[in-house]
User: Fold this.
Amino acid sequence: PADRRLQLCEAGDVAPGGMLRVQPEGIDPILVCNVDGKLYAVDDECTHAIASLSEGRLQGSIVFCPMHGGSFDVCSGKAKSLPCKQALRTWPIDIVDGTVYLLLKS
Ligand code: FES
Assistant:
């Protein structure tokens, strides 16, 4: 079957340095991050415990969790500081006519 895509937001909804939490149908919440004008999508929930990274802080490509201050690189998903150890899931996206889509492998 063909890959599926889910509409997330408009590219203009996320300013450089900004983040947006999106809850698409049927999957976990997604965090869309704008790093220097380029958009990245990762899981919104911290892998350490239960916290929405959208309520944290984005500094360059590093998102800091609001709960215990651990961090991740949103470009690679890699955990960058403790207590976060497990990488965040990263998602491929596509931008068509200013609309951001999440690509789901079937
Ligand atoms: Fe994110 Fe602990 S829940 S660092």
